[in-house]
Amino acid sequence: MKLPHWPRRVFAQLLLSQTVVTFGVAAVTAGLFLAPVSSELDHDAMQRALSIAQATATDETIARAADTRDVVTAQRNAEQIRLATGASFVVVTDLDGIRLSHTDPGRIGHRVSTDPEPALGGRSVTAIQQGTLGRTARGKVPLRTADGRIVGEVSVGISDDSIRRRLLKMLTGILLCAGAGLAAGTAATLLLARRLKRRTHNIALADISALLAEREAMLHGIREGMVALDERGRIRLANDEAVRLLGLPGDCTGRPIAEVLPPGRLTDVLTGRITGADLPAVRDDRVLVVNRMATTEGAVVTLRDRTELESLVRELDTTRSLTEALRAQDHEHANRMHTLLGLLELGRHEQAVAFISAQSGSHAVVAARIAEQVQDPHVAALLAGKTAVAGERGVRLVLAPAAHLPDAVVDARALVTVLGNLIDNAVDALAPGGGGRLEVTLAAAGATLLLQVADSGPGVPEELREQVFEEGWTSKDAPAHRPRGLGLAMVRRLVERTGGRIVLDTGPLGGARFTVELPEALLTAQLVEA
């Protein structure tokens, strides 16, 4: 015979299994309750039989009848007591255990079927025994005369049928209670199964397993970070990319966001204190775009790494600035060539030679001065390029006369990022009005690098000098292609990660001055030799 299939749906499995469990619990409970009840009924029957036997043994008429072996008197009185008490039998014996009374007169004169010695020895006895009348609860006591002599025993029995009738009466109530419990359990199971059916969308248990496996594969396979939070802001799930982007510890699950991330904009965005779409944030040297969506039991946060894109955008901005500078220089070069052509046509050769020397020497002098003061090629190239771009925007960028960088830097990329962002911010602050001055100072103290970027712009009010380093804060309109307010935040993270510090105050030119100290940033001669 083919066995029925186990149901596939979750709610059906729960309903069936819980119903079976409820039936089993009800049956076991009823059985456990009935066992002591049956034992208690047997004990009550034995005590009742003993009480009847003790009361019978106090009858002096029966004692004298046993002493004189008066069967008629003993039978008559014993039967009267049996009928009055409802006992199954009341047996009176002499000292030899010979019956003087019995419900069956034909058994009178025969020895009793059970051992009379304990009662004849003076002890009261209770027991469940099998006799001529079947299984009975018995009470046996010695039968004494008025002077205290033992002349026989009184044995009283209560049949097992009467005990079972009492048990059956109680069994009805027990079964009713068990049935009520079973009905309540079945109803609760049905309600729970229906609720689970709604919550699981009536899917099969195998489908749940497949969905979980697919979810794990998707979460850890996508190249975007995903973090699931509960209603208390604790991490319920973080995929591999989120752990990498946020630098989370391996035991982050179950811990609050504020415990595994430092205070700042990123933490505020993840916990929902800052709301919005595509919010930029900085984690170490990474630029992240964060989106947070609330759920019924917490929130889901997605993270996208914009570090490389941000770098490319900055390079595109620099390239565009250089292109604009080259376009302007092309026009300037054409004007110079026209001037030179005019001088030659007028026959003023000496003036033409002087004009060419003056024009070609100005840029060479600036580049030569930068190369003389700054030995690191990356920093020198950055300053030369930024000088040309700033000049085209009407800003004069100069290297302080005392500036000197004699050694190569340890991390040229980080230094170029720091110095480039500070110069760009200063140029942006000066360019709208034009005619501003920007001064860069570099100094070495052993392996420590000190740099300053000061401008002649409006400066930064003292109450805003800490706020300018926060992610997303900016005083300028953000362009369409990328968000503002990340450059100074990234600069501060880079500086603090290397153990350095950055300070904003008012410089000698009247505007803002950024002072950066980077320990162990230079490759000194001792470090090179080591």
TrEMBL record:
Entry membrane topology: Multi-pass membrane protein
SUPFAM superfamilies: ATPase domain of HSP90 chaperone/DNA topoisomerase II/histidine kinase (SSF55874), PYP-like sensor domain (PAS domain) (SSF55785), Sensory domain-like (SSF103190), Sporulation response regulatory protein Spo0B (SSF55890)
TM region(s), chain numbering: 170-193
Broad enzyme group: transferase
One Gene Ontology CC term in the entry: plasma membrane
Keywords assigned by UniProt, alphabetized: ATP-binding, Cell membrane, Kinase, Membrane, Nucleotide-binding, Phosphoprotein, Transferase, Transmembrane, Transmembrane helix, Two-component regulatory system
Catalytic activity: ATP + protein L-histidine = ADP + protein N-phospho-L-histidine
Pfam family, any one: HATPase_c
BP term (GO), one: regulation of DNA-templated transcription
GO molecular function, one term: ATP binding
Keyword Metal-binding attributed: no
Superkingdom of this protein's organism: Bacteria
Domain Histidine kinase: 300-522
Compartments it resides in: Cell membrane
Annotated EC: 2.7.13.3
SMART domains: HATPase_c, PAS
Name by which UniProt lists this protein: histidine kinase
The species this protein was found in: Kitasatospora aureofaciens
